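pls ignore typos typing on phone
oxa(dethia)-CoA + seq
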Amino acid sequence: MSTLRVKQGPAATRVLGVGSYQPERVVTNDDLSETMDTNDKWIRDRVGIIERRFAEKDELLVDMAVTAGAAALADAALEPSEVDTVIVPNCTMPAPIPNAAAQVADRIGVKAAGAFDLNAACAGFCYGLGIASDLIRAGSARKVLVVGAEKLTDVVDPTDRSNAIIFADGAGAAVVGPSDEPGIGPVAWGSAGDLVDTIYMRDHRYLYQEGQAVFRWATTQIAPIALKALELAGLTPSDVDALIPHQANLRIVEAIAKKLRAGGAREDMAVADDIKYSGNTSSASIPIALDHMRKAGTVKSGDVVLMVGFGAGLSYAGQVVICP
Ligand code: UT7
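k done
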């Protein structure tokens, strides 16, 4: 009987660098109210968005992912040749074939990369980060680029006021590599497929969501996942320096933060409110928020960051990350 050799990687990983990209075009609430029955006050009060970014027609998901991914590599001071795997969490590629990841890898200059897309909708980035970390720890990859990228304007009916005011375009990326000290905690993930009908593509064309049902689910079921991620990392709420939930709705973000504070999180814990100027960019929202918070100095190197994503599936995932 032959015995197969198996690989074993380093015990721990960390995020080595972060980057993001948003399209040039800023769309305000007043801009939207010119084409549909909505207004600035309703959007700010109910969702928290002040403005968002829309890609131009010829600017593709892959284009945005390439810019964000290259920025993350530059932030980590890594050459593309040092990366061997590229994961692109997304749910808005124009077609299921081809995937985004192989093109992103090629255009960034990562040769012959292991490359795959991952669809866990708005939870995609946290799923991708968990898989990247485990691939390295298992010895299957050395350094992994994870790029959450979305062009939601392709799948939102521009006349549907409940969705068109929320969703936006962009990409956010992180490079993951081996570490002496643990910098990425175990992922807490799961799904609620019985609620599949609350977010789906209607007639394979436009996104449909039962906003109130998803809102109720997110405000009750997601804080416990964040707490689970903390517990898996051996931490408690008071250890958290920054909370970055998926930027779906500012009221959901605040509800999650309130529950964490009720569980012992500090009043001075930074809470991502990137949705105000970025809108809901699905799998890109968490890394975009992290990148913006680092650049603004709201999150510093060494800070304990708690991330949690949630969305269609329904699916969810969260983990603790030490800010690079
Ligand atoms: O990212 C993936 C996960 N997704 C989420 O987490 C989204 C969760 N859901 C939500 O964030 C919210 O449910 C929405 C932002 C989608 C909607 O907010 P809502 O407070 O639940 O509004 P609603 O759909 O219950 O509508 C309330 C009222 C209605 O009017 P009536 O029937 O009470 O007279 C709507 O017709 O607001 C009206 N409305 C609007 N008014 C102005 C709905 N959309 C708009 C709008 N502008 N854009």
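The domain at 12-179 is CATH 3.40.47.10 (Peroxisomal Thiolase; Chain A, domain 1). The chain has two domains: 12-179, 188-322. more later
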